[in-house]
Task: inverse folding
């Protein structure tokens, strides 16, 4: 049985119950979960399962494996409380979507530059590109257009493009539709304001770092 991913159905859930479906040493699986595991550059959630602090969350195919402390006493078939650090999750959700907006604006306005990396944490997001010159030349346009989208408080649709293979997308009418399996906010206005920073990582590569203002 593949875990039911409640973080897609309602990414604002911070608490739920679940049944432990397997236990192998420190590693367990659940029948349903709100704890997102690292994927697509998005940092894993922090949280607790059955009162034990989560050490690691890892995707394995369509399953999610959770690592708990050695002294955990959970067993297969047990009902447990599953909690996440909501403050961390919400910061990640906002920074994730800020990065999605910036990336889409780069594609739309700068002839689809090649993205070579991305990472989203609760502190900042970053996107890396192959880029000739100083990428700060784009910042005025990017910030203006991003803040205009945030001010418009556009609704964000998130759904499956292929439910069996668990492929997801987000869509903002009139702006873009993009494949993405992360956790998404409901509307662009939730982001507030952002600040962009350049990081020259060498070899014709430029990094845009994104912070919540």
Result:
């Amino acid at each position: 049985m593949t875990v039911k991913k409640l973080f897609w159905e309602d990414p604002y859930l911070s608490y739920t119950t679940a049944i432990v479906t397997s236990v192998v040493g420190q590693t367990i699986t659940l029948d349903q979960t709100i704890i997102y595991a690292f994927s697509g550059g998005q940092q894993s959630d922090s949280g607790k399962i059955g009162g034990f602090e989560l050490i690691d969350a890892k995707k394995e195919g369509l399953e999610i494996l959770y690592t708990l402390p050695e002294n955990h006493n959970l067993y297969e078939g047990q009902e447990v409380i599953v909690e996440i650090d909501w403050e961390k999750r919400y910061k990640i959700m906002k920074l994730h979507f800020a990065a999605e907006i910036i990336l889409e604006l780069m594609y739309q306005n700068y002839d689809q530059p090649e993205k070579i990396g991305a990472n989203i944490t609760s502190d900042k997001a970053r996107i890396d590109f192959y880029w000739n010159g100083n990428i700060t030349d784009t910042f005025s346009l990017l910030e203006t257009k991003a803040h205009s989208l945030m001010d418009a408080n556009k609704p964000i649709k998130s759904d499956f493009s292929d439910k069996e293979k668990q492929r997801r997308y987000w869509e903002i009418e009139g702006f873009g539709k993009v494949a993405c399996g992360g956790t998404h906010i409901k509307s662009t206005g939730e982001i507030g304001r952002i600040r962009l920073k350049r990081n020259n990582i060498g070899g014709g590569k430029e990094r845009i770092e994104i912070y919540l203002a």
